[in-house]
Each structure stands twice: as structure tokens, then as C-alpha cells.
Automatic annotation (TrEMBL), chains A, B:
Belongs to the FAD-binding oxidoreductase/transferase type 4 family. It comes from Desulfoluna spongiiphila. The keyword rRNA-binding does not apply. Keywords: FAD, Flavoprotein, Oxidoreductase. This is Glycolate oxidase. Its cofactor is FAD. Pfam families: FAD-oxidase_C (PF02913), FAD_binding_4 (PF01565). One of its GO terms (molecular function) is oxidoreductase activity. Residues 37-216 form the FAD-binding PCMH-type domain.
Amino acid sequence: MELKRKARLALTDIYGKERLKTSKEDRVCYAYDARNARCIPDAVVFPTSAEEISRTLALACELGFPVVPRGSGTGTTGGSVAVEGGVVLVTTLMDRIVEIDTDNFTAEVEPGVITGDFHKAVEAKGMFYPPDPSSAGVSTLGGNVAECAGGPRAVKYGVTRDYVLGVEAVLPTGEIVHTGVRTAKGVVGYDLTRLLVGSEGTLAVITRILLKLLPLPAATATLKVSFASMDEAAEAVTRIIASGTLPRCVEYMDEASISCAQSIADLDLPQGCRSILLIEVDGSASEVATSLEAVAGIVKGAGAMAVEEARDAHEAKRLWTVRKKVSPALYLFGPDKINEDIVVPRSAIPKMVKKIESLKKEYGLPMVSFGHAGDGNIHFNVMIDKKDPVQKLRADAVIDEIFDHTLALGGTLSGEHGVGITKREYIGKELGDKELEIMRGIKKLFDPKGILNPSKIF
Amino acid sequence: MELKRKARLALTDIYGKERLKTSKEDRVCYAYDARNARCIPDAVVFPTSAEEISRTLALACELGFPVVPRGSGTGTTGGSVAVEGGVVLVTTLMDRIVEIDTDNFTAEVEPGVITGDFHKAVEAKGMFYPPDPSSAGVSTLGGNVAECAGGPRAVKYGVTRDYVLGVEAVLPTGEIVHTGVRTAKGVVGYDLTRLLVGSEGTLAVITRILLKLLPLPAATATLKVSFASMDEAAEAVTRIIASGTLPRCVEYMDEASISCAQSIADLDLPQGCRSILLIEVDGSASEVATSLEAVAGIVKGAGAMAVEEARDAHEAKRLWTVRKKVSPALYLFGPDKINEDIVVPRSAIPKMVKKIESLKKEYGLPMVSFGHAGDGNIHFNVMIDKKDPVQKLRADAVIDEIFDHTLALGGTLSGEHGVGITKREYIGKELGDKELEIMRGIKKLFDPKGILNPSKIF
């Protein structure tokens, strides 16, 4: 569907020529997210205010074209691509940190602020914003809110949802609304704030975000722990959490992930190491020392082959860089990646890892898993060549089995990536008919014309 | 409106004679909550399963009678009283702690579990459920979820919303739904869980709750700090939070609250003390020692007259008992209490306290404030004799001014009590027309016949 002349003229009225892009070259740049499938929009606009977004959505309702909100496009489930064409609305020009309130530990930001820039800004003032998705250097806070981004620190600090106090948002019908409060507590009316968090840009375009901040921990320390088996690593995680020490990150890498990581940098691992944990603790200096000692004792008791503390911030950073580079390095195993982010109750990780091992043998496809062991969030990847129809069919069968097993273990199909378009066909495995009917009813209530980010989630 | 014969027969079918109460004596017992206004229901039922609740709600839709869910009736805004008559559905027989999972730090409970019993059960296993409303000894977890209960520990640990992973609930139309996940992360579909938390029993009857738990802190310590003025106390709170030490509770009492508390027990305060802070820190033993020292230093710097640490658990408990008894002791000042739980950004507490002082002089009514200074949640009370129409009018004017001032300071009209019926007429001060329209639309979507807890919130 192409935009009508009337729509193009009206959009030019709002955005001028500078902030409305309609050339093919410009549109192709906004045809992808990290999922790597192509949906070319009819136009791309760059609003600088809620009012412009309001006018755009009112126009979309009137003339019937889709609008797809987008931050930096780092999502992995197609949430920000224009499946049905229409206008991609890019929020990156709305990138002001409006206020950092050092008395009340809150911040007010526009949606286009880069997550990593926000981390730096609040940390410079002695404050801390825990959500830290892998793409933090590029992703926007608006996108983080839309997807309810997580990351490794969730084991101790929770996810984006836990830090959003309120938002300003534009409804698909064009009205500007304000939800939530500026305070830690607030129970006046239904919780529209958390309804919008994680709604994947289908209910409203977020134009202002009120965030809760914490005091910046005085100290952190990182441990790299090697194990001869994934089972032992998983057992160590269970024992750490049960001990009452809550690290801020407990990341694991399986044998295949380690091979990938080794291809980037020498991890200096003992012979026979088949799994590693990266554990980060934080708090006051004395608390960190106590936690480190406790954790080291526990992992040794659980059979660790080697326990090494990063000697300094530089070495800790190197360890984390390696962990974050595993994902792109997976292309060693195949040209196409199917990337899932299932979650199981933490104690079920060994069962899940065993399942993955047996599927690997059964289907003969390269599979890699790593992720946030502390909260049971497994980034499970199948590497294939999509041009090979047999590989594609096998991969689909693997995903199906993995999803069924995840749900049987009491888990969920997505911890932080969302449904978007890639998990849409599976949503009925996790959610019942009535639950889906209610969600569709909410979508209809917010977006009676169905113009905002259509064909996503359900 | 009385229940039709057909409805009574059908309810007898579901509940037998034992669990259906229709005598006036029985109905009067369920005509009140802590707000102290009388609404006698037509019948009271005591379900033992989601299926029975489902049948009851389907029947209510068919025959058109209201159903009002109720736990222990400790709410303060009329949320559990049958304003339009009908059936009060009491969940107290559904009081099983179904599971406490020590590996994954989760629990599954029925809605009728008493909050304090749950605290004891999880603490016996070395785990911790932070939400701790004043009524914890009596209130139910179902009621806590319906109202999004808070309490003093929210400053560090958040509120009920932050601990609810998922629920089983019966929709007003009778369908049983399951929302959320058993894991810390989960982003499949819209967040129906948080939509139900704090919805005051107007969207669904909660029949099962999945809760997140934390490791039980190894140590706690309580400080009682005396100040010559409320301003100094408030300044101390701001400095403590800004220092990076996050106590788990920071409670304050103003001069009038202190008088009340003194009437219960000698608080052993220095001459001229006009405000006290109760500060509780927790963590490992060493962390608690460090925090105590830091906090003591800060409050002295802010002008504290005296800083005393509770010498033992017994003394700490006594301090907290006094704090919790202030609310009932307020009846010293008048036969009727108007109890509000406004929240302002923490740093605005001195401004709010000054406003209260000036209103006291202006209107000549006894007013008392105390509450959760750490999160800006002020329990503000006006004591009157409602039979005196002049006092009643004055009190209404005071409340109006307090609410306007709260919102002007960036606050909210309720931190933990909810809207119910007592704040319904004020909700338009805080929420815009479009936001209310969306909320009413959600109510209609869940409850097309309007039979579940009608006349509440809006």
C-alpha cells in the first residue's frame, strides 16, 4: 500500500522536507531491525514533539495508513518494522534528558535518549539505572520501555518495568495522555503505565518517561568461574541464590558459546572447561568483599575448576565485552541465526540445557545457549542456512520442541525480546483464548482504527 | 435491591447452607471496612475454589446482582463494601500457601492467606516478602494485591506490585484466566498482571497469586531520632537518601502524632522534641553496622537532638508497635477520622508539612500527620465530629486544599489506600478525561454487565 498524495502533503505540513523521508534509499535504512528481515515503509518521519506525533496519528486515523514507532531499531522480533507499510516514526530526535532529580532519585527523559548515554549521565551524579540490555550503547529508552528490556542485572534489580514511574504518551487516536506518578507509590486508577510498558508500540507512542533511580553502588567485582559441565554450573547458580547472596549478574555460557568467545579473544580457560559463569556482585566495599568470599566458597563447593576475580576494572570490562560479543560471533556456525530468549524457573536450567543437548544430536543443527542464569533467561540460538529448506524445517521443529519444553517447565517464550512478528504464531502456546481476547479488546480500545504498529503480537 | 429468590436458590446450590449467609446478623458483620461506613449486603458467600467463584459471577451476570470481593475488610476507602447491595464474596476460606519454592524464590498462595502468616512462613525458610501494610496481622494477600498495598519498607523494596509475578483470576463474566509468569522476566503479551494489581476488585476476583521472594536479610537495626522541628527531620531524610545508603524504612511522626503515641507509651523523648524519625536498616551484619554509622552521622549533621539505637529486637518491636498504634490513638482528638494517604516527592515533605500547619491554624481542626517519609507517603488525618455540620464542611475544605497542594507538588492522592468510594469524587483532580475514559473502557471490557464491585473508583 502506498501513501496517498493527501497523506504525503499533510506529513510535509507537519515535518517539512527535512524530517520527512520518502526516497527509496532513506526508506530502506528503516526497513530492518536486528531480526534482519526487510519491510520497506512508505515514508519515514522524525518528530520532535508529542504534538507532531499527535497530528501524525490523527492523520493516520483519518486517512487509514499504518504508523510504526521506532527507536534505534535494535529489537530482535520485528517490533519496529513496517509489516503493512505506512509511516515509520523515528523518535531519535527526541533525545533530551529533561531532568535528573538528585533529591528524589528520579529522571525525566524523552524516548530517543540512548540507554548507555543515560547510564553515564546518572552515574556521573552518583545514581544508578539498572536495566542494561546488550544493545545499551545503541538502543533508546523509548524502545526499552516499549519492549520492557531486561539484561544481565535483572537478577538483582529487575527489568525496565520496575523503573518506569509514569509516561506521557500519544494514543493511536491522537490524544496525549499522562499515566503514573512521580513518586514511588501511587494507586489512583488502573495501572496504565505498566500496561504500556512492554506493549511493543501497539497501544501508544511514548513521548516522555519518568524513571526511578537508585543510589550508585560504591563497588562492584566480577568473577569468572569455570566448570567441567553445565550441570555443575547450574547447580552453583542455585546454591548461590539460595545462600542469600544476590549477585547483580549471573551469566552463563555453554560449550558452544565458549568456542565462539574463544574465537574473539583468549579466555584463558582450564583444559576441559565446558561451561563458565560470569558473576558480578555490588554494594559497599565491605559488602562486595563479603559477597565475593561467599560466592567463591559456594562455586568451589559446587565443583568449579577455577575461580578468578577480574584484577581490575579493565579486565572486568574485557570479560563482559567477550560475553556481549558471543551473539554476533555465532555466525561462525551458519549464515542465519534463529535467536530465542526463553525463560525457565532458575532451577530448571539444567533440564533445559539437557534438552538442548539432546535436540542438537537429534536434529544435527548447531545450537548455542548462553544468557542470564540468575533469572533463568536463556538466549538459545539455532544457526542455519535459511536457503536450505531442510535446515529451515528442522530448525522450526527444534523451536517448536524447545517452546513446548519451556512451557512444560513453567517458563515463558520471551523474557525480554517480546513477541513482535517472530513469535506471533506461537503466542497461543503460552496464552489462553480468553487472555488473548482480553488483550485484543485492549488493543481495540486504544486503537479502534488499528493504525498503530499493526500485525504485531497477535 | 434485594436478591431474587432464583439467585438465592442458585447460591444455595453452590455454597450449601454453611457457606451462604443471609441473616441480618451475619450480613451486618460484612457491612463495614476500616472506613467505618455501613453498606449491608443481601448475602455473604465463602467460596473455596475458583470454580465456585466462576459460577457465582456467571450467575450474577445472568440475574444482574452485584458481587463484591472481600478479604479481611481492612481497606480504608470502602473498596470491599457492597455500596449497591448484592453478594459479598469473602475469600478467607481460600487460605492455603500452596507452595514456597526455595530454589526459585517464589511462592504460590490463595488470596485468603493472612499477610503476617505468610511473612512468618517464608521467613522460617530464610526468605523475605517485603510488603508490610500496617494491617499485616489481619489483612489478606488477595486484598493486598487488589489494593497494591505498600507499607514502610517500600522505600527500599517497593510495593505489592513489585512482587506479583502472575495471578489466576475469575473475570466478571465467569471465565478463569491466568496472567503473568513464574519467572522474574516475561514479556509475552500485554501486562494483565499489573493491570489487575491495584484494580481494587473491579476487574476480576483473584484466586491464586504467584509471588516473588527475596533472601531474608541477615540483620536489621532500628534507630529512633529526635528533632526539634519537622523541617530538620525532613532535611535529614533527604540527606540520608542522597548519601547512597538506602534504609528499608524511614518513618516520621509529627508533633501531634508524638502526643498520641505518648498517650500509649512513654517514648522517652528529649524536651522540645517535635518530630521523630524511625529508621530501619538491613543487610549483612557488617553492612548494617556500616549503614547505622553512616545514618547516625547524617542525622546528627542535620541537627538531631538525640539518636538512639534500639538495644535489642524487643525494644525495636516496641518502637514499631508505638508507630503502628498512632493511627487508632488519634481518636483522642475527635470521634471521627478522615484519613488520607497522599504522596509527594520526598523532597517536598517540608513544604507539605508547612501547608498542614497553616491549614491547622486557618481551620481550627486537629490534624495529625505521620507516615513513610522515605517515599513521601504522608498519612494525613483530620479529626472531627461528623455530627457537627460545620466541622464536616471545614474538613471537606481542608481535604480539598490538601489534595490541590499535593498535586501541585507533583504528588498523588493515594499511595496505598486506593480510591474506593472515598476518593472517587476527587479522581478527576489527578486523572485527565481521556485517561479516565480509557480506564472506564477497560472496566467495560472486563465487566460488560457491570456486576463486579460497582460504584468504585469512578
